[in-house]
Amino acid sequence: MTIAAEVAPAAYRGYVPRPLRPQIAGGIYHVTSRGNRGQTIYGDLTDRAFWFGLCSQTVFESGWLCHAYCQMTNHFHLLVETPEANISDGMRSLNSEHAQWFNWRYGYRGHLFQGRFHSVLVEDEDHFLELSRYVVLNPVRAGLCARADDWPWSSYAATAGSVACPDFLTVSRVLSQFSFDTNKALASYRVFVAKGLLEQGRN
């Protein structure tokens, strides 16, 4: 028996394999991916534009519905619905292609992202609505801007009707939580997001 064979059982004693990520057809997920050791994943506007294009491509190729997104500095958030059970395949494609681009552009090697992406399965409509607000308020809560509409790299402005909606973004499910009248829904959504900061201030 080799030394490696003798020590291997002890080395793996107590090791618990990572649980399989739930793959649910029709599931809605809050997904985050963070830079390895907190490093930035967007060096400049070109990197943000490249990720934006990749995200659009991934949503279309995977058949997803993207309800909200936000590019931060060292991570990003997505609120996506998967008609097919393919959240892992889509995220693997998005993260690997962005990492390849980033490493090629800056001459880096190794991992850009911190392990696997993190995902939370949305439980119900209240949870969905709260997450739609949480995602776009992330830069405000991080102190990067004063209001959600000051951050151009999230879905807030498009959902609020301030800018044209990207092709890969689906705003109807979020807005329908408030009203089926478009103008009322847009106004109520803006109030709902703004109230999120007020409620945070009272906590």
Q: What is the assigned CATH homologous superfamily? A: Transposase IS200-like
Share of β-strand residues: 5-15%
Oligomer: single chain
Main sheet overview: 4 strands, antiparallel
CATH fold annotation: Alpha-Beta Plaits
Reading off the top of the CATH hierarchy, the class is best stated as Alpha Beta
Query: Which parts are unreliable, with pLDDT below 50 for 5 consecutive residues or more?
Result: 1-18
Helix content: 40-55%
Number of domains: 1
Shape: globular
| Average pLDDT score | 90
Number of helices: 7
* Number of DSSP E strands: 4
Quickly give the CATH architecture: 2-Layer Sandwich
Order of helices and strands: HEHEEHEHHHH
Question: Which class of secondary structure composition applies to the elements?
Answer: alpha+beta
Cα-to-Cα separation, first versus last residue: 61 Å
Biggest sheet, spatial arrangement of strands: 2-3-1-4
Give an account of the 3D structure:
The chain is of the alpha+beta class. It has a single domain, classed as 2-Layer Sandwich (Alpha-Beta Plaits), CATH 3.30.70.1290. Helices cover 46% and strands 13% of the residues. The chain is built from seven helices and four strands, in the order αβαββαβαααα. It has a four-stranded antiparallel beta sheet with strand order 2-3-1-4, sandwiched between helices. A hairpin with a 3-residue loop joins strand 2 and strand 3. Helix 2 runs antiparallel to helix 3 and helix 4 packs across helix 7. The protein is globular, with a radius of gyration of 19 Å. It starts with a helix and ends with a helix.
